[in-house]
Amino acid sequence: MERNPVVCPLCQSTGSSELFHRDTARSYYRCTLCHLTHIPPVQRLSLRAEREEYDKHQNSPDDVRYRAFLGRLFNPLHKRLLPDSRGLDFGSGPGPTLSLMFEEAGHRVSLYDPFYAPDTQSLRIQYDFITASEVVEHLHDPAADLALLWSLLLPGGWLGIMTKLALDKAAFSTWHYKKDPTHVCFFASETMRWLAGKWQTELLFIGDDVLLFKKPE
């Protein structure tokens, strides 16, 4: 199979990524070590074009359906938190809603988003929980970003991730999720288990698209 000499953006290995799928827009390589599927950096959007795509989003705290969608992450994570926990909504987007849901439940939540809430002060303290809802598939440097989030968790804290998980080659070829031009990394269940092994931590799969990692005490 055709190999990609570019370093895998998650496990940092060189020469481990094989061509997994190609369409008219992009090429997709899957790492044989961590199972991350990723596109070459030269095929990513510019930051300006990426921001223009995000500006099209119409997410709102008043949207009942959007709240129900976020509930897939909120509900299992909230029931595992102590009262008045402190959290970070990483990649909060143009219409922060998940953070509001946790605040309504009695928690304190800071925001960080490179486009819409870029104050890095929120990345200098530790938290009882961190959420990344529909975020990891956008990361250009998942190794650094996920390492940062893990470092910001207090012992016993929870990292909640929501993302669609990549399946086999046949399913990937017709998968709608890859058509979003801002999606550049696609995590498989094996990728999440690889992360849990790297962090030596507990991993819970909730439904089809929610992952909870607990940092050891």
From TrEMBL:
It comes from Desulfocapsa sulfexigens (strain DSM 10523 / SB164P1). This is Methyltransferase family protein. InterPro entries: SAM-dependent_MTases_sf. It holds the Pfam family Methyltransf_23.
